[in-house]
Design a protein that fits this description.
about 280 residues, mainly alpha, 3-stranded mixed β-sheet, 8 helices
């Protein structure tokens, strides 16, 4: 298991441990499911190339990002439906029951624990460029944000009277919208990758600049790029002098590969087609 996969497994296991503890006291079962998905798919993604997957298993991590994002979207939709129903009930003369102090402290503990898990997990996700870990971090934050709404409602009811428990679902609507927007924002890049979207234009231009800077390269065209999980896959044609020997052409491609991998990572997959310039015609 490589270090990147170990980091994903470590941070997710810590999150799962906390979620198990909080599931007993509060409501983090959906987070625990997402933890399991992240660990399972990260291990598959790290398998590398095999007979059935010539380009590796990187897109399993991308698929996990889509699944976790969709789970996050479902949580947001369920929260907004629940908050809407509570508001309707309150307006119909059926306010939420007055909370007890134990509910206040349960909300405080949930906020502190889940926000800590979010901050820790999202830092790891950004450091290792793992969208699925970042998406899973937001599952931690959903509980923290929902507990903020509960805390506001509880505090309002305690200090202003029981009818102010409506603050909980009102804040819940706003928080639900934030969660839904984040779920969509995280799923779109993953969906683009699964549908073979190219790398950003500026990234492709940087690749072209690197290739053209190599001595012996007279031109480059047919550049095709895509992602496989955290790794880039690059295909292109490089033009060399028609008098270049096979050995010299091979050495040019080795230089290109080394320079691209130095810039974009050792796991970058590069496929180069060498062809002579028009001088040979």
């Amino acid at each position: 298991m490589d270090q990147r996969t170990k980091d994903i497994q470590k941070i997710t296991l810590w999150g799962a441990f906390c979620n198990i503890a909080l599931t007993i006291a509060v409501h983090s079962a959906s987070d625990l499911v997402s933890d399991i998905i992240v660990i399972a798919f990260a291990r598959i993604s790290a398998k590398g190339k095999d007979k059935g997957h010539d380009y590796g298993h990187g897109k399993f991590e991308t698929l996990a990002t889509v699944i976790v994002s969709l789970m996050l979207l479902v949580v947001g939709v369920q929260m907004i439906q629940h908050s809407y129903q509570q508001i309707r009930n309150a307006l119909d003369g059926n306010p939420l029951p007055a909370p007890e102090m134990i509910a206040f402290w349960a909300a405080v503990i949930s906020i502190l624990c889940k926000e800590f898990l979010y901050q820790w997990t999202v830092r790891v996700g950004r450091r290792i460029s793992s969208q699925v870990v970042i998406a899973n971090a937001w599952h931690h934050r959903t509980d923290a944000l929902s507990s903020v709404g509960a805390l506001i409602g509880i505090a309002g009811a305690i200090s202003l009277g029981g009818e102010w428990t409506i603050l909980d679902p009102l804040v819940g609507v706003v928080i639900s919208i934030v969660i839904i927007v984040m779920a969509i924002k995280m799923s779109l890049p993953a969906l683009a990758e699964l549908t073979e979207a190219s790398l950003p234009e500026e990234t492709e231009q940087k690749m072209l600049d690197i290739i053209r800077s190599v001595e012996g390269v007279k031109g480059v065209h047919e550049l095709k790029t895509r992602l496989s999980g955290p790794y880039s896959i690059v295909d292109f044609h490089v033009v060399v002098d028609p008098e270049t020997t096979v050995l010299a052409a091979h050495e040019i491609t080795v230089v290109i590969e080394n320079m691209l991998r130095k810039e974009f990572g050792d796991e970058t997959q590069i496929n180069i087609h060498v062809e002579p310039s028009d001088d040979s015609l």
